[in-house]
Amino acid sequence: MWRFVVLSTFVAIGFVDASRVKKDHVEKTDLKRVRPHAGVDGTLPTKLTDDERMTSRTSVSFIKGLLQMKGNNYVDTFCSRSKDNCTTVDGFPGSNSHSELTFDVIVRELMETPKREEEGTIRRLGDLGYFIFNDLLWDKDWKVFPIGADFEDHRMHRPTADKLMGHNSGAWSPELIREHVKEFFKGRNSMKGTDYDKFSTKLFHKILLDMTLSDIEIEDFESYKGSSMMVAMLPRWLVTALKWKGTLSTAQENRDLWLEKYEAAMEKDTRKIIPEMTDPRDRRFLADLLLTACTSAGGISVPSIMGLALAVVYGGDKSPLPEDQRQLTKKTIRPLVYETVRRYAVVVGFPWWSPDMSKRTVLNLAVGLRDPRKWTEPEAFKLRDINEYHEKAGSGTKIGIAWAQQGKGPEGVTPDSRGCPGQELSVVIVEEFLKELMPMQNEWSVTEMGKDGVTISEGPSGASPFTLSKGATGESTIRDEPEQTGPKTVEEEAEMAASSVGSTATFQCPSQCMECCQQVISWSFVLGRQDKTAFKCVMPKESIPGFKIVGRKCDAATPRDTDPPSGESKCALTTAEQAHEFQNQLAICN
After folding, report:
1. Helical packing angle, 215-233 and 242-268, nearest 10°
2. CA 20 to 30 Å from 197, out of 28, 48, 394, 553?
3. Are 374 and 103 within 8 A, CB to CB?
4. What is the dihedral of CA 490, 136, 203, 262, to 10 degrees?
5. Which of 529, 545, 539, 543 is nearest to 570 (CA)?
6. What is the pLDDT of residue 499?
7. DSSP labels, 127-172
8. Are 89 and 82 in contact, with CB atoms under 8 Å apart?
């Protein structure tokens, strides 16, 4: 699946422990303020042109290098190529790439990032760890992965991200997370990787947008997450080839529909955390930034850490932790989360480019987290004293570089910070999950796994597929693990999601429709063959002008010759709805 590729280079923009967020809202006029170190003449860095955004930054050697990282220990991969005792690496992956590998240098360089970006001596661009994202998914807007957008956009919307995800956020609390965890476990008798994905998706939408997603919406989101990540990560020339054009078009369309939902949710949100915005572009950009957080930040890292921690606890003889230390306790849960993130980093790199985009530098967080100059027995998985993880390192903590915490700058969180807003959020989510599991830990056991058992690998960091079941007896079932054959289509991802929850779901007719019924294929008006990709929405006559269902693709409404008068519109069934064959639940229109 797409996840197999994505996890290796989750970017250091996700969830990082933030200090208290400054309360002052950054006004647009503030973007023009003169800073002591802002450029040569006090101005902000020059924006990239559309042509520069559309320039391909990948190469054959870069792609070859990424493939060589697959399935290999990060330290071995990079240190074996270093010519200065695992301090730096040049020319991998890609001839123009430079990696910093030592803990102290990573801390120092992270703290300098906000200043350098404002000065224009570096550009963040649209990268995800060691991956280089193309511009195609965002072609109609900013032509870049939102986290690498223009400096002005980042400065304007960073404070909102801090208020939503940061340490003192009013959008989340341990109690809210605990409530969602309890709901997850209620009546549950089995769980596996896709369940952690869906749990995280539901929780993040509640925290960021106060949205409550239905099971079908969650499946649709997981499908979009997979397809959008894949078309963004692949080289530009490949995505525009015939095979991928349809997937790209579908991903672009679904992104627009999700942004519609997000903007509507922002408008309805009464928590007063998201600021009012009069500029439609600003609203759309913030919506896209939050969408990015759910698809490629916490939406990947949190379920990955959950799966890794569970693999440590239930991994049997393949677990890296001695058996007598695997029993969950209040004292050991937080160190378990920290050590999982340290030893099996899901955040691999923090990248930037030279102003002319000719040279790329990556701070290799995964290797820095195992720097023997800072960590005793760095390759071992051991529950260390909590104070060691919290030891001060620059403007953050020792474990903080796992989320590029020091990227917030030397003075704490500011609108220019590149340190990420929610380390504590991500840790608390996994911590509360394990706390809920703790009293019933021994009631759960592995019932399905691959032929090699429950294993953990790097490049990317992840656990092999396994299923935990409650109250099961007998030996585990060994499942064949098919060879990864490459990215899956939107439809394949949706079918997998649908099959994982069974076929008990029912179609929910949108509230904008008086009736939802079968849609006939336009060219089959004589035979009346059903269009299995759409349904007919019947609405009151007064709803015809400007008819719209937010987040769903519908044709313009037209009048129906009925008594009383009404209107109708052809509306698309979502990918998940088609996977559940909801078209078979629709009646013939009256």
Report:
1. 130
2. 553
3. yes
4. -110
5. 539
6. 54
7. EETTEE--SGGGTTTTSS-GGGS-HHHHHHHHHHHHHHHSTT-SS-
8. yes
Q: How many residues does the chain have?
A: 590
What is the pLDDT, as a whole number, of residue 492? 54
Quick one: which of 180, 228, 221 has its CA closest to 6? 228
Structural domains of the chain, ranges and CATH numbers in brackets: 2-439 (1.10.630.10), 515-585 (no CATH)
Taking the C-alpha atoms of residue 131 and residue 2, their distance in angstroms, rounded to an integer, is 13
In angstroms, the CA 99 to CA 109 distance is 12
Chain-centroid distance of CA 459 in Å reads: 18
Angle between helices 174-185 and 193-209 (to 10 degrees): 140
Whole-angstrom distance, CA of residue 208 vs CA of residue 500: 26
- Phi/psi zone of residue 377: left (φ > 0), alpha (ψ -120 to 50 degrees), beta? left
* Gap between the Cα atoms of 4 and 6, Å rounded: 6
Tell me the per-residue pLDDT of 488-530, one tens digit each, with 9 for 90 and over: 555 555 555 555 555 578 999 999 999 999 999 877 666 678 9
Q: Which segments of the chain have a pLDDT < 70?
A: 1-42, 480-503, 524-527
d(CA 522, CA 534): 12
Residue among 407, 192, 423 nearest 297 (CA)? 423
Helix axes 280-292, 151-165, angle to 10 degrees: 60
- Measured CA to CA, the distance from residue 568 to residue 256 in angstroms comes to 23
pTM across the whole model: 0.90
Strand order in the sheet with 97-100: 88-90, 97-100, 360-364, 349-353
